[in-house]
Amino acid sequence: MASLAGLLQLEGHRITGSDKAAYPPMSDLLRGLGIPVLEPYAEANLDSKPDLVVIGNALSRGNPEVERVLDERIPFTSMAALLREEFLVGRESLVVAGTHGKTTTTSMLAWIYQVAARETPALEPSFLIGGVAENFGSSFQLRPTPTFIVEGDEYDTAFFDKGPKFLHYFPDALILTHVEFDHADIYADLDAVKTAFKRLVNLVPRRGLIMAFDGSENVTECVSHALCRVERYGFSQGADWRLNNLRHESGFTRWEVWRGGVLWDEFEMRMAGGHNALNATAAAALAFGQGVKKEAILAALKSFKSVKRRLEVRAEIAGITVIEDFAHHPTAIRETLRALRSVYPKSRLWAVLEPRSNTLRRKVLEADLVASLRLADRVVLAGVYQQQRIPDAERLHPEDVVRKLNADGAKAELLPDANAIVNGIAPQLEAGDVVAILSNGGFDGIYEKLPARLSELHP
Fold first, then answer.
1. What is the CATH number of the domain that holds 40?
2. Structural domain of 67
3. Model pTM?
4. Alpha-carbon distance 171 to 201, whole Å?
């Protein structure tokens, strides 16, 4: 929503917004753009009589602004519908979708096109990303050029449109990274998730291209009836774009990419983790398939920084490294911890998790969560975010996760909130420790509170 607000402002519209409680990095982005955010939601926020209200998918009937919009028949739409109407029609739509990795992969693809535009200005992309891409310092860009790169979210569109947002984007080319059960609040099961992605695949025209991960049976099923060209990327021998000899050395992740049994080139980038090497390979392969030169692709990946809240180092104090990562699913947690192991192989690794996403707040993937957290040396769980909104029978009980981890010999504890966690672990942290703070929300300011406390203990 913040990214769309920025795009609309670039078009010359006057934008205001409302939120329950905005938090970084998007609150900082909006403040920098001069777009006011009114907090909390209230009917009075619409006294300016806007020409159009864009209703986000977090809002439902009962929200005071939604009710006023309906009562007074103020024109309204959804983010996804407005994005297509205002920006995608008449452009080439490149969509990055999947349960995991889409924000990072979209950022990589946009940066590849930006670097390629140094030689071919017509390649400079417009884009909308669900995070702040550090190479751009923004989550959006608007250019009068043909290509628009967009992160395709499978979450529902709005209370009046329960289909996935990505069905509005009509991709000319598509990256499909992963398909797993997620968003347990809106999808009944894995089959429902796969149905959504199959519908997205069905929107790609015959002349289009799908770049699909080859390490997932679910992805294979979703692209099996595509009517366009499908190429696969991954570690298997049969992949069209095969990753090989992955290693982390001298601050870089390096790997080979083979195409059709022939070495295509050696890749390197600063982001860690096999999952990010897969993301980079997908972006590179799609860009090459769309006519971007190899030299620009390699240069872009080597200079790619990261995305805010993805393996982001927030502080280094007295030899203690504090890292923030966006955690919404057990698989994402697993890959984050694996990546940190590759960068800090001799460090004691702490995982500090707030179960906040609509999937992590439920116990449906509890076993997967326990398995992922075992990769850390020490685990600290906070209480479930807004637990009262989840029926007890469906809700994750962090004490059960802690008990199972401890029964397996892991060291885990439950501390109720950010303040308790900071006060509890800060005195235990030692030089060489790496603390991964995992949440898809603000986590009550822990990203600032823990470094502040460490600075007090280690002046």
1. 3.40.50.720
2. 2-74
3. 0.86
4. 9
